[in-house]
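We modelled the chain as a single entity of 283 amino acids. Its sequence is:
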Amino acid sequence: MTDPRGFLEDKVEPGAPTGEHNEFVLAMIPYEETTTYGKGTARAPEAIVDASGHVELFDEVLHLDASRHGILTLRPDITNLDSITRSAREIRAAHPDALLGFVGGEHSITPALIAGVAREEMGVVWIDAHADLRRSFHGSEQNHACAGYHSMKFGPIVQIGIRTLAEEEWELLKTTDRVTQFREWGAAAAAAIDALPDDIYITMDADGFSPEVVRAVGTPEPGGLYWQDVMDCLDHVFRKKNVFAFDTVELCPHDDDLASSFTIARLVYKTMAYHAYHRLNAR
């Protein structure tokens, strides 16, 4: 059954994050077809919406309430990756000036989403534990382990948090200038982002975080980024670039792990808050 609740709708004191004009449009993309270890990414969008009702609207660091700019929550009808591209294209056409956010779902949705919203010249900031640069995996080019490979055609990619590689991915990295990788956030990663085109798509895989921060993922990897690393990265990207869309993927919600769902819900809202701080408030 379709859940009519919107992102940030507080169940105790209902608010009104949806306005006459919405600077933020969030689309729920519960697509899961190729996960191979821990499963459950199809449940992530609604788990994130549920958790968002308990996120404070006021940002204690940026001193603003991004929801006042209007947040529209959509649940497009999706059946496959082609329908995801079609829905993304329709959402972009209907909301050309909004920051678009897509809440997945497995990582295979990312190239399908970018295909629907791509700019003529753009770059991708990719937060993840895995490179996702296989040409094919388990007999499918649409596997979530191939998302990075099939996103390269849209623009150069800066990957942050990468701490595991297949040999074929390592070999590819030696021959392409389309992907630059960093295990950690720091000055080198920031400089690589600065060198990207101005228009940016951000994709954030939950396993880019250390398992100490987010445990509910399909393939948890030791090490990883901490909360402040990702906040500093988002702050830098929104300050230096024009972010037109983003996604969050690969959360596998567990009933006994509210922290992971809440953390990703807060990540989604913090992404909007950085946009409000660097772009909307600067108008």
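As a brief sanity check on the tokenised model: The longest helix spans residues 258-280. The first strand starts at residue 24 and ends at 29.
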